[in-house]
Amino acid sequence: MDFKPGEKYKAFEPINLPDRQWPSKVIDKAPIWCSVDLRDGNQALIEPMGHERKLRMFRHLVELGFKEIEVGFPSASQTDFDFVRFLIEEGEIPDDVKIQVLTQSREELIRRTFESIKGAKQAIVHLYNSTSTLQRRVVFDLDRAGIKQIAIEGAKLVRQLADEMPETLVQMEYSPESFTQTELDYACEVCAEVMKIWKPTVDNKIIINLPATVEVASANIYADQIEWMHRNLPDRDKVILSLHPHNDRGTGVAAAEFGIMAGADRVEGTLFGNGERTGNVDVVNIAMNMYTQGVNPELDFSDINEVVRTVEYCNQLPVHPRHPYGGDLVFTAFSGSHQDAIKKGFAAMKKSNDPLWAIPYLPIDPADLGRNYDAVIRVNSQSGKGGVAYLLEEDYGIELPRLLQVEFSKVVQGVTDQTGKELSSASIYEIFENEYLNAKGDIEFVNHQTTVDPHASERRKLIATIREKGQERKLEGVGTGPIDAYMSALKQAYNLDLKVNDYREHTTGFGSDAVAVAYVEMRDDKGEPVFGVGRHANIVTASLKAITSAVNRSKGH
Ligand SMILES: CC(=O)SCCNC(=O)CCNC(=O)[C@H](O)C(C)(C)COP(=O)(O)OP(=O)(O)OC[C@H]1O[C@@H](n2cnc3c(N)ncnc32)[C@H](O)[C@@H]1OP(=O)(O)O
Ligand SMILES: CC(C)C(=O)C(=O)O
Q1: Backbone φ, ψ for residue 460 (5° rounding)
Q2: What is the C-alpha separation between 97 and 34, in angstroms, rounded?
Q3: In this model, does residue 557 exceed pLDDT 50?
Q4: pLDDT tens across 181-236, in order?
Q5: Does residue 510 carry a pLDDT above 90?
Q6: Could you tell me which CATH number the domain at 443-556 has?
Q7: What's the whole-model pTM score?
Q8: Per-residue pLDDT tens for 52-92?
Q9: What is the β-pairing status of strands 239-245 and 206-212?
Q10: Would you say residue 512 has pLDDT above 90?
Q11: In this structure, which residue's CA is closest to atom 8 in ligand 1?
């Protein structure tokens, strides 16, 4: 690494726009979306899509609600050309969807592009040539006038061929490619020349697309550039101003959002941001960001898993597990304090009945993307009591009292620390069963009978059958209720010094499947807590089992 980067790299000069308006604008409606998955995305793949993958992607994009889809660069390859023909000839293009085709500003390529769209009801022909200072010098070896001439020649031919094809409603799009590295006055001049040739009207607008072909500056600079063009382009009302951000600095989404605030009407991008180098801007990300601000994105990502599957299949590239909105892990909290806050957030929402989403660490309801809550909390060595308790409650209906959560979470932590691995909900339940419900010890509860104490009618006499080292034994005790009576029986038989400090119970399941779960917190002679849990269809049996569990655990400790 060169530690004197200033000798090798030059900072991007700020744009002179002191009265910029975009920073205080708010995005309150969806832009026109154009998917470039089948073109910019496809041209960046290790293995470009064949016909079957292209068709699957196209159909999926239509299902998601895209009304403009760049379907290829038909003059570049036979595969692209044939795919465009297939879509048109096989009636694959819904009436409200426009296909878009890209071409360089070269005569033979433009002619071939028009050949490809013959018979389409409507299509966007997208013409581009690079205008940046760098490309003018190193790629084209042309001055400003020479580069403008490439655009003019191409635009004239596009106009002529569109006029010769009246059966197709041709919309024209021009991109000064590498716009962000082009002087603004010059980019505007070239676009204005193209506009003079294409003669847009308010009813038949053209698209001027301003690509960050390579993202070379911070997102605010792109916004300044877009606002400058928005203000200075002639006949702005006859132009659909379009963005095409790439993501070299990792700020493509921010650039697109700022660009919309700066006056753009349209965004070109791809699903999950596949595209050249670090990718095109991720349309899912921008759209779902809007959604979380209460703005309808007019794209339907309510089955995000299907979008991920399709994109992974077509691109033959994985979607990263941390990818915004779509990644496998983006709705999962492993860490204890996050789990605790999420659990409390769900409980608060349930209680308040307020439809406004307000869960800490979850900026969006996973259900809105077709995700369930199964993966919201996963447990490993970074997790705390909240997460463990959440899983037992959600998956097994076990509502651990708070102090028991603390105790059990230490048991779980012991296991995760030892293995270093994640624990599934089923494994946590198994640990819970072994630790409490089937706590190992000398005594096994078998059954009980209660009767009214013949000496005091407000007291209960209880006879409990237990198994001790394989032998059944009857214990007798008297108390204010079955718990008290059983404690008294155990104390007499085993000389125990334990007191019941807290007792709770609840049911899980419904109707004939309902089961009672009882939790007892006992204190030993030193005041240390020890918990026991019992589960049974009969609530009294559950509570006596809970006591047995606590006694066994106290002896084992
Ligand atoms: C930023 C972007 O993503 S733009 C889209 C890029 N996508 C692609 O390139 C994928 C498809 N492209 C291809 O398959 C090929 O490039 C083709 C078939 C279109 C053309 O192939 P070739 O004729 O071999 O030319 P190649 O792509 O190497 O083009 C370079 C030539 O075109 C010129 N050129 C490049 N872009 C343009 C343009 N937009 N308009 C006019 N001329 C251009 C170059 O100056 C160069 O000219 P030279 O040969 O006189 O030096
Ligand atoms: C053709 C243009 C719009 C392009 O793909 C880019 O500049 O990235």
Answers
A1: -115, 140
A2: 10
A3: no
A4: 999 999 999 999 999 999 999 999 999 999 999 999 999 999 999 999 999 999 99
A5: no
A6: 3.30.160.270
A7: 0.87
A8: 999 999 999 999 999 999 999 999 999 999 999 999 999 99
A9: parallel
A10: no
A11: 43
With a cut of 90, say whether residue 1 has pLDDT above it: no
CB 202 within 8 A of CB 241: no
Structural domain spans, the chain: 20-315, 336-437, 443-556
Q: Report the pocket of ligand 2 as residue ranges, CB < 6 Å.
A: 40, 102, 128, 175, 177, 209, 211, 213, 244, 246
**What's the rounded Cα separation, in Å, for the pair 154 and 522?**
86
Whole-number Å distance, alpha carbon 313 to ligand 2 midpoint, is 24
Atom of ligand 2 nearest to the CA of 276: 8
Average pLDDT of 243-272?
Answer: 99
Mean pLDDT of 529-556: 94
The CATH architecture of the domain made up of 20-315 is Alpha-Beta Barrel (3.20)
Burial 69-108, CB ≥16 within 10 A → b, else e: bbbbbbbbeeebbbbbbebbeeebbeeebbbbbbbbbbee
Q: Please tell me the distance between residue 46's alpha carbon and the centre of ligand 2 in angstroms.
A: 19
- Bridging pattern class, strands 499-508 and 515-523: antiparallel
Distance of CA 365 to the CA centre of its chain: 10
- For residue 292, is pLDDT > 70? yes
Give the residue carrying structure tokens 């605010």.
220
Q: Dihedral through CA 104, CA 105, CA 107, CA 109, nearest 10?
A: 10
CA 328, CA 447: separation in Å to the nearest integer? 48
Cα–Cα distance measured from residue 248 to residue 449, given in angstroms and rounded to the nearest whole number: 76
Q: Are 411 and 366 in contact (CB under 8 A)?
A: no
Q: Which of 43, 78, 104, 136 to mutate to test the pocket of ligand 1 (most atoms within 8 A of CB)?
A: 104
Spatial contact of 21 and 261, defined as CB atoms under 8 Å apart: no
Measured distance CA(499)–CA(487) in Å, rounded:
8
Rounded Cα–Cα distance for residues 186 and 149 (Å): 13
pLDDT at 487: 95
Query: What pLDDT is recorded for position 556?
Result: 60
Q: What number is the ipTM of this complex?
A: 0.97
Query: How far, in Å, CA of 380 to CA of 374, rounded?
Result: 15
Q: What is the pLDDT of residue 422?
A: 93
CATH class of 336-437: mainly alpha
Q: How far apart are CA 490 and CA 552, in angstroms?
A: 11
Ligand nearest to the CA of 129: 1
How far lies 288's CA from each of 161, 257, 401, 550, in Å?
39, 12, 38, 50
- Name the token pair of 405: 């959560």
What's the gap in Å between 68 CA and the centre of ligand 1?
24
Q: Nearest bound ligand to CA 269?
A: 2
Q: What is the pLDDT of residue 99?
A: 98
